[in-house]
């Protein structure tokens, strides 16, 4: 077993675990309407994505040094040849990566749902091409159709 490969896999797996936690925090923030914290989460996610990419490149370099291809097949072969600990770490990494993909997709759907809702709300407020409210926040009297937003 290559201790260096195991170290790369362990660091990569831990970073993906942190990424999963951020994705869950992001989903929770959107669900609770706490949109103010999203920019910070997005920045941290970008940093972690860069870190994960670096760890992935380091893993690929180590695989090549060990005589394997720098792809999933090479990692599978190295894990199978490296013993139970290396196999378990590789499998944990794959599981976390799949979860991260699913959670990222879920969050993307949530973001697009919020975006669509916001667009629809803006369209409603711009009914007929005339804004309901002026730049000063006052209601335009000419566009009043008799319906109140408060009444639904």
TrEMBL record:
InterPro entries xrefs: FlgN-like, FlgN-like_sf
Keywords: Bacterial flagellum biogenesis, Cell projection, Cilium, Flagellum
SUPFAM superfamilies: FlgN-like
UniProt entry tagged with the keyword Glycosyltransferase: no
A matching Pfam family: FlgN
Signal peptide start and end residues: none
Keyword Lipid biosynthesis found: no
Gene3D superfamilies attached to this UniProt entry: FlgN-like
Family under the similarity heading: Belongs to the FlgN family.
Function in brief: Required for the efficient initiation of filament assembly.
The protein, known as: Flagella synthesis protein FlgN
Lineage, uppermost ranks: Bacteria, Pseudomonadati, Pseudomonadota, Betaproteobacteria, Burkholderiales
């Amino acid at each position: 077993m290559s201790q260096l490969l195991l170290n790369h896999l362990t660091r990569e797996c831990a970073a993906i675990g942190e990424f999963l936690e951020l994705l869950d925090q992001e989903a929770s923030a959107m669900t609770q309407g706490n949109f103010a914290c999203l920019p910070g989460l997005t920045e941290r996610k970008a940093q972690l994505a860069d870190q994960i990419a670096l760890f992935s490149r380091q893993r690929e370099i180590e695989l090549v040094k060990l005589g394997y291809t720098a792809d999933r097949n090479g990692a599978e072969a190295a894990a199978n040849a490296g013993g139970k600990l290396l196999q378990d770490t590789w499998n944990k990494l794959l599981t976390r990566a799949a979860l991260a993909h699913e959670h990222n997709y879920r969050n993307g759907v949530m973001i697009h749902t919020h975006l669509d809702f916001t667009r629809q709300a803006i369209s409603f407020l711009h009914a007929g091409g005339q804004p309901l409210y002026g730049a000063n926040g006052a209601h335009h009297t000419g566009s009043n159709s008799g319906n109140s937003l408060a009444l639904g």
